[in-house]
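TA notes. Do not distribute before section.
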Amino acid sequence: MNSKALCGILMLVAGTAFCASTKEINFSFDPSRFTTEKKGDAVLFRYNDPRCKYVEHGAGAPVLPCIEVYVVMPKGATYTKCRTRVESLPLAGTYTLYTRESNADVLQYAKRYPERLVEYAGRRALGEYTLFTFRVYPMSCQPGDGSVARTLRVGLVVEYETADKGKYETVTAEQIVKVKSLVLNP
């Protein structure tokens, strides 16, 4: 499935991404964008992508890299739940996770790392449509054994409701073109 970057917003708009029975979206991390950097005794893992944002998870928690994925839904759609399928590549060895604090060259111990690789981050209206926002994380950690894995691919199956309860709508190619125009010229 193809995805297209648009003005720093990832719009998953391939034809089969919007089918009537399921809202299934597939997202891949480019393996060539993962890099490591030695910092004293620590090794920093990075995902080098201009779309990467850094999100703080509460006071004292680390600032973590993620990519926000925007999914186009019918106007007024409300989020119900999301099921995920994740393909990851475990890294050899045991790690203590650190992240770089935002706008600083400081390492911070990651006491808490999100157990979920994908999280729902809200919705917003965009003309005749609703955009659901999901945060997708390029790395994961198993708190028990300290192992780390790089995320390769994520599949999302988004469940939602419209005013007509339980009715799923198909987003057409013409509507996708209109959404792109609204994002470029809000």
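Switch to the second chain here.
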Amino acid sequence: MELAVARSGSNSPITAPPVRPVASPETKRVRPTLCEAAQPEPATISRASDNQRARAGDIVARRCARPGPEVRNQPAATPTGPRVHSPRVTSVPRHGGRRSPVFRASAGRRRYTADPGLTTHRQGASPRTVRTRANTPLVDLALGRVKGAPLTHTALTPDLRPDPLRALDALDRALVCAERGAPDRPLVLIQRDDFVAASQGLRAELRARLDAVLMANDPEAGLDALLTCGALDAVLPEVKALVGFGDGEWRHKDVWKHTKQVVRQAENRVEIRWSALLHDIGKVRTRSVSPDGEVHFFGHAEVGARMFDKLERRTQLFSADDSLRTTVRFLILHHLRAAAYDPSWTDSAVRRFGKEMGDHLPHLLCLSRADITTKRPEKKRKGLRQLDDLFARLGKIQEQDAVVPPLPSGIGDVLMKHFNLPPSRLIGDIKRALESEIDTGDLLSHQPAEFYLDHIATHATRYG
């Protein structure tokens, strides 16, 4: 209906909104249904902006969540304008001091949604029981199915083919344990064939991850993770055999715990960490018990070196690094030599030990220090003190040997040939007399042999 009355100062007519139908007196006054609430006036629809439409959707959501009386046999009013569509609702504001469980969306749990044209809850009904305008079913967003519909389980054929990437992923999880002390994801047991495939096709990647676990801040946690995922059993069964070996009725320390402690105490160098991991693998095959109950591992260093050779032929972990392979085998074979030192050794014995160890001597001393895991403080101090004494004596002897002798090499043979002297104590006395004169500064050092022959001939009475 258009009114003929015009505003002051304006000739344009004013359009009056349509008059809403009035319910009959016999009809019980109830809350408007959602259909009525969702039908705004035509003028509002034609002039509403996007923001206004969004606000209208929020109003619909609030009315959906607000409890109200149940309406029975009440016909819905005829729509008077186009329908306003609101966005899907997954969460609504609080009502009555609590949030509706139907629309609550908590992280990690199933969420349900429905068409926004939901009516209000029935009085006394369960919070999850709702009625929709068109019986719209609730949809489980997590499973993608209608709530209440039967769940169909589809049996998938497991893929049991060897996959080296699964093995590398397990090693990555073990590396996280070694770096942080705890895994970022659950550790699972990987089938043996996966590790075998990785050791054959991805040998470099496998060795790199094992190196990283041994060189991490907490190698003990990393080794336990390797045990849990099956890497030790598949790749290093010689190390796996140490688990549970000892303690209890055997009267000797748990070799697996001892090995992990040695790895942790060892200097953070790859050759020393690998040697610490493998240095006692020969104990499993050499354990013996004497009649008095003492446990011995005679020859376990030599047996361990042979076991390392078999391990390398099987896995070829060190095939790309001959220097590392040689060093690790040498340290396994000789890891008891430094611990056998006694202060009563002569300088000749210390010198011979240093020459036999050669370039591996610094690595051997580091491994020997890490191999002291006793809990008795006095015994530990004694072992460390002996290693320090051995190191000091080796340094002193090497420093003495590095000094060039003052007399030329072979001076004794030259003296016997020139003066026609037989091998006797006199040759040694002449050499010591020459060295004494050099020490006092009466004779020049580092001269040719002819210089000293002329000096002896000139002072024959002095040398007998």
